Amino acid sequence: MKFTIALFSPAHSPASRRALRFAEAVLANAHSIERIFFYREGVYNASHATVFPQDELDIAEAWTTFVKQHDLDAVVCISAALRRGLLDCNESQRYSRETITVKAPWQLSGLGQLHEAVQQSDRLVCFGDS
């Protein structure tokens, strides 16, 4: 079965941890992930600037490691990211900002990427406030 996963909650929320555990279980059970799409507050999971206390799981880093390890397509909604001050190299240059907070493996793209992934998947599973 092919899944698309959409995450609407920030990195510090339980929904983010649940989404990661679900994604791990999908792959562990020989299914595949078409795309992981981070939207609304979920874009904070892709922030390179997020710092967690030492006694907490760094879920943003855990997502980055998971995406890299499995070579997954991980898309961050560009409008939601820009609205929250999250920029990759291209957007940093476009808006003349010095800060880059979104780096590989994350890619900023539009909501159409979620729609496309849903069309190519058997299931869409959403986590957080939709």
UniProtKB/TrEMBL annotation:
Localisation: Cytoplasm
Entry's transmembrane regions: none
Entry-linked InterPro entries: DsrEFH-like, Sulphur_relay_DsrE/F-like, Sulphur_relay_TusD/DsrE
Keyword presence, Iron-sulfur: no
Chief location: cytoplasm
Assigned keywords, A-Z: Cytoplasm, Transferase
Pfam families in alphabetical order: DsrE
RNA-binding as UniProt keyword: no
Sequence similarity: Belongs to the DsrE/TusD family.
Name of the featured protein: tRNA 2-thiouridine synthesizing protein D
Source organism (scientific name): Pseudomonas duriflava
